[in-house]
Amino acid sequence: MITLHHLNESRSIRTLWLLEEMGVPYKTEFYTRDRATHFAPESLKAIHPLGKSPVIELNGKVVAESGAITEILIERFAPHLAPPKDSDEYVEYLQWLHFSESSAMLPPLLQVFMQRETAELVFLPGYAKAESKKVFTYLNDQLENKDYLVGSKLSGADFMMFFVAEIIQRFDSKGEYPHIKKYLQNLKALESWQQAQAIEARHYAK
Ligand SMILES: N[C@@H](CCC(=O)N[C@@H](CS)C(=O)NCC(=O)O)C(=O)O
Question: What is the pLDDT of residues 2-26, one digit of tens each?
Answer without folding.
Answer: 999 999 999 999 999 999 999 999 9
